């Protein structure tokens, strides 16, 4: 079993409904991830969790991506919870910085965990399991039953799911 660093950057995965603002917001909290780990994983994985940025991925900048790269520099296996809209962009940024030095998996959800636990839980557990079992180095995206190199998968906005590049 590998020691896996989990980075929570926010995204739809983490969104909750703010009754005062009347909209979904990204809280400065790791609740969704800690809830999944406590309810479903039963300490089967050695993990360290770090929450940072807490943004919708549409608000992410290259400065944010650089901050992620600095956070993962001393780790070899990393799972990043990230918004789906710019997941590929962040994956490419990390790849440009580290190439195949590390094993990095990005995952997320298109429905908030607070509204429907199924997709977020499935994608998180799938990404964590892939990361724990693989010996491959590189930057991967783990979404909707697929674990692919970052440049072999994309978000099909028309169908609302991730697919392999054609």
User: Gyration radius, to the nearest Å?
Assistant: 15 Å
Percentage of residues assigned to helices: 25-40%
Strand order of the largest sheet: 4-1-5-6-7-8
What would you call the shape?
A: globular
- The low-confidence parts are none
Strand portion: 25-35%
Query: What is the correct CATH architecture?
Result: 3-Layer(aba) Sandwich
- What is the string of helix and strand elements? EEEHEHEHEHEEEE
Q: Average pLDDT, to the nearest integer? A: 94
Euclidean distance between termini CA atoms: 34 Å
As for the CATH topology, it is Rossmann fold
Number of helices: 4
Largest sheet: 6 strands, mixed
Features:
globular, 6-stranded mixed β-sheet, alpha/beta, about 170 residues, single chain, 4 helices, Rossmann fold
Report on this model:
- With 166 residues, the chain is α/β, with parallel strands linked by helices.
- It has a single domain (3-164), classed as Rossmann fold (3-Layer(aba) Sandwich).
- It is 31% helix and 31% strand.
- It is built from 4 helices and 10 strands; from the N terminus they run βββαβαβαβαββββ.
- The strands form 3 sheets. The chain has a 6-stranded mixed beta sheet, with helices on both faces.
- A hairpin with a 4-residue loop joins strand 2 and strand 3.
- Helix 2 packs across helix 3.
- The longest helix is centred in the C-terminal third of the chain and has 17 residues, at 117-133.
């Amino acid at each position: 079993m590998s020691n896996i660093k989990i980075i929570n950057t926010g995204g739809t995965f983490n969104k909750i409904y703010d009754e005062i603002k009347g909209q979904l917001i990204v809280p400065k909290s790791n609740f969704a991830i800690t809830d999944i780990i406590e309810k479903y994983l039963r300490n089967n994985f050695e993990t360290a969790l770090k929450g940072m940025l807490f943004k919708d991925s549409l608000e992410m900048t290259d400065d944010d991506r650089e901050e992620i790269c600095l956070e993962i520099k001393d780790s070899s296996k990393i799972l990043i919870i990230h918004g789906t809209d710019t997941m590929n962009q962040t994956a490419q940024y990390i790849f440009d910085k580290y190439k195949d030095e590390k094993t990095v998996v990005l995952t997320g959800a298109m429905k908030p965990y607070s509204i429907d636990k199924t997709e977020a839980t499935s994608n998180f557990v799938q990404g964590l399991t892939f990361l724990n079992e693989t010996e491959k180095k590189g930057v991967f995206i783990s979404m909707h039953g697929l674990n692919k190199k970052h440049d072999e998968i994309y978000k099909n906005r028309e169908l609302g799911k991730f697919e392999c590049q054609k």
